[in-house]
Specification:
The chain is of the alpha/beta class. The protein contains 16 helices and 17 strands.
Length: 453
């Protein structure tokens, strides 16, 4: 693209586009990164510079960019029909995808409610869980009106999903608009234990949950959590057995378990779904992000038969789930999602990811030599590198020092897109990224931190 055109687009971007999670005052002073095309693990900007996608285009990309099989699925579908409504009618790709999702999700999860963002899939899960108890027995369960969620939880940006969120930085300002939640400490070993004793942290949090439930289970409709790792909270990896312990307590105290697999689903933690690793079957599961391989917006809330059955009744009983979005079950999204899952199977992607997880783990060890790397947390191909001013005290750099901004900018200069969450540098590569690309990315991360000590 010629320099005039580049300049024009940069100006128009600053003039007309309001970017999410972005302080626009700073943005307007910076040179925007404007992407023009993608190929495999790389993105190209409008000046032709290429970058490894170490952020999987916000944790969504599975096979890479511009994948012939996925392109074909979309063009085939668009030549038939792009969209018709799921309200009062059905369509072919949404049926085939729902059947596939029922087959690949854990246990008896089998009823698929479509939406288009992870946040919406969480709203839907919360509304289903709330109404579930009212549909069963509205007198007996009249107090079951609240939810338990973890500290630092992130479940999306709509008011309902923010209500069950616990990230002070993003959520504090909206407090007066939110409904109440009950908060559970998140088992964050690095911050909770001097000597990294995972077992003690796990037991502490599970005991806390048990005493909450003993006291308040009759007020709790459901518990919502991300299984195995809290992504947006800064890749907080949970101790083994925590998820299983939560499931056991939810069952014991008659509270629905909602697992938000929006970030961790579709191979990200080394299994198709994170719940599988602890043999856990939630009552309701939320999926999004990787579902279409990073091609189209699509999400779904999947429930067990038991939950679904509570919504069956005569029209006049008003057990109907009165919820739906305009683009629910969109054909283009569903067809590319189905092809994405088939392609994962055809290329044995999960097995490849498992090998790459070990490869990455070994390569990351070297980062501990850097004096500002406090902790490296990894679950599958979700990696968080916590940057601290002092390894011993775990003190972080003050926000005014822009430490992480500088590291991220250095990586971009060297051809790698990564992002920070507060004091945590996050590396979430395209899921199918090759070992040589992963190695290159980790070298760039090392250099970028080294230059900013
Ligand atoms: C990204 C994310 C969401 C929200 O999904 P959107 O598509 O951005 O609305 C919800 N839960 C988790 C765990 C996420 O990572």
């Amino acid at each position: 693209m010629n320099q005039n055109k580049v300049q024009e687009l940069e100006n128009w971007d600053k003039e007309y586009v309001w970017h999410p999670f972005t302080q626009m005052k700073h943005y307007q002073k910076s040179k925007p990164l404007i992407i023009e095309k993608g190929e495999g693990s790389y993105l190209y900007d409008i000046e032709g510079k290429k970058y490894l996608d170490g952020y999987a285009s916000l944790w969504v990309n599975v096979h890479g960019h511009n994948i012939p099989e996925l392109n074909e699925a979309l063009t085939n579908q668009v030549n038939k029909v792009a969209h018709s409504t799921l309200l009062g009618s059905a369509n072919v790709p949404s049926i085939l995808l729902a059947k596939k999702l029922a087959e690949i999700t854990p246990g008896n999860l089998c009823k698929v409610f479509y939406s288009d963002t992870g946040s919406a899939s969480v709203e839907i899960a919360l509304k289903i869980a709330y109404q579930y108890w009212k549909n069963i027995d509205k007198d007996k369960y009249k107090k079951k009106n609240t939810f338990i969620s973890l500290d630092d939880a992130y479940h999306g940006d709509t008011i309902g999903s923010v209500s069950v969120g616990g990230m002070d930085l993003y959520h504090r300002i909206f407090k007066p608009l939110l409904f109440n939640r009950i908060s559970l400490p998140s088992p964050h070993t690095y911050r909770m234990s001097e000597d990294g004793d995972e077992e003690a942290v796990k037991n502490f949090c599970l005991q806390k949950l048990e005493s909450l439930l003993q006291e308040k289970a009759d007020e709790v409709a459901g518990l919502i959590m991300e299984p195995l790792v809290q992504g947006a909270a800064g890749i907080i990896t949970h101790p083994d057995g925590f998820l299983k312990g939560v499931e056991r307590l939810c069952r014991q105290y008659n509270v629905l378990l909602i697992c938000d697999e929006v970030a961790v689903g579709f191979g990200r933690t080394g299994t198709m779904f994170a719940c599988e690793q602890e043999d856990v079957v939630p009552d309701i599961m939320c999926i999004g992000k990787g579902i279409t391989g990073g091609y189209m917006p699509l999400a779904a809330t999947i429930t067990s038969e038991k939950v679904f059955d509570a919504f069956l009744g005569e029209k006049e009983e008003h057990k109907t789930f009165y919820h739906g979005h305009t683009y629910t079950g969109n054909q283009l999204s569903c067809s590319v999602a189905l092809r994405n899952i088939q392609l994962m199977e055809e290329t044995s992607l999960i097995e490849k990811v498992q090998a790459n997880v070990l490869f990455v783990k070994e390569k990351l060890e070297g980062l501990y030599n850097l004096e500002i790397v406090g902790d490296i947390r990894q679950r599958g191909l979700m990696i968080g590198i916590e940057i601290v001013k002092d390894k011993k005290s775990k003190e972080v750099f003050p926000i005014q020092e822009h430490k992480l901004d500088d590291i991220v900018a250095a990586a971009k200069e060297k051809g790698l897109i990564v992002r920070q969450l507060d004091q945590v540098l996050t590396f979430i590569p395209v899921l199918a990224m090759s070992q040589s690309e992963l190695e290159e990315a980790i070298k760039i991360i090392y250099q970028s931190i080294l230059e900013n000590i």
